[in-house]
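Thread amino acids onto this structure.
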């Protein structure tokens, strides 16, 4: 396993980070989820990403139970706050980045994770309905209380990041990361988010590096998605993945197989290694529904893709790649989540 510094901080994280967005507490039984976490630890992964909203808190519970007994100082644990959590019916204050929700949510996350602190606490989305000053003050209080060591954001625009960084600097806390979607097929952060973060000293911790499984090559043009795959599961990412299921996109993806083969990699390993070629990326988040998937994806760590292969990937994918920087702003909710 290779490690990278997170932004300009002194915190090092494993460049392959284990995440449990669509698996723990929902799609995968708890004993299998625990086996996946142990496989990650065995493979040298020390960084784990979750969120309070994943399976309405169950993902944090499963991860906390799986990590129980591990030396806490040897782990880097990340979680997030914004989306609704708690029992139904949800209350108006059960979501967002208000001081009330942030301070209550960190306590809930720590209880479920069975931990005294998280290494990174991330704003899961930008909150248009709460003053940013209120949110950043709440995060500063979380840090000063020793409940989080660093602060990050997820799916924020360059302007939002810049404003938050300015406030964080004034408050004396470290805003060190951005967590966007990023893959060979989805590159909307490259033109604006990445340069802004490089300037301000933030790293990317990227999710969906294999484009919800599309870049594994298992989805074939002209064929129905495999039974049990994410493309057939409305609760498992079907809405996210459908943009890449057009035959022309899938045909181009299949043409990546020789590129991966020439490098001695699987297509999934090539996809994970590709995002790690970006120097602003500190880690690629991988998930798993089976322990053996972890071991395979970890082989992308430390891989250097030659320039000619990077160029070949661009030529193969062509206009199947989404690059429009304006799409980043679409991740900001335009109405209250509750």
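Threaded sequence (338 positions):
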């Amino acid at each position: 396993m290779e490690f990278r510094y997170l932004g300009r901080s002194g915190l090092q994280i494993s460049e392959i980070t284990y995440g449990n967005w669509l698996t723990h507490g929902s799609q995968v039984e708890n004993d299998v989820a625990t086996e996946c976490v142990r496989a990650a630890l065995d493979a040298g992964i020390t960084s784990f990403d979750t969120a309070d909203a994943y399976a309405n808190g169950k993902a944090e519970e499963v991860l906390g139970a799986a990590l129980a007994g591990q030396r806490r100082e040897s782990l880097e644990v990340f979680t997030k706050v914004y989306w609704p959590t708690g029992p139904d019916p949800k209350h108006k204050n059960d979501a967002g980045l208000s001081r009330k929700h942030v301070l209550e949510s960190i306590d809930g996350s720590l209880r479920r994770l069975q931990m005294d602190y998280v290494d990174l606490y991330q704003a899961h989305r930008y909150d248009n309905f709460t003053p940013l000053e209120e949110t950043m003050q709440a995060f500063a209080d979380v840090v000063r209380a020793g409940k989080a060591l660093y602060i990050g954001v997820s799916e924020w625009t360059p302007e939002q990041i810049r404003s938050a960084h300015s406030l964080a600097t004034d408050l004396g806390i470290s805003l060190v990361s951005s967590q966007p979607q990023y893959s060979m097929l989805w590159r909307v952060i490259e033109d604006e988010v990445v340069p802004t973060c490089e300037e301000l000293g933030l790293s990317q911790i990227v999710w969906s590096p294999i484009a919800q499984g599309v870049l594994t090559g298992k989805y074939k043009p002209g064929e129905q998605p495999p039974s049990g795959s994410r493309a057939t599961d409305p609760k498992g990412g079907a809405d996210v993945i459908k943009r890449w299921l057009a035959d022309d996109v899938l045909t181009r993806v299949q043409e990546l197989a020789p590129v991966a083969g020439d490098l001695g990699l699987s297509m999934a390993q090539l996809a994970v290694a590709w995002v790690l070629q970006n120097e602003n990326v500190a880690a690629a988040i991988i998930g798993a529904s089976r322990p053996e998937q972890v071991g395979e994806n970890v082989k992308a760590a430390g891989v250097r893709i030659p320039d000619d292969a990077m160029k070949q990937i661009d030529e193969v994918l062509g206009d199947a790649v989404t690059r429009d920087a304006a799409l980043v702003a679409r991740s900001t909710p335009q109405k209250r989540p509750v």
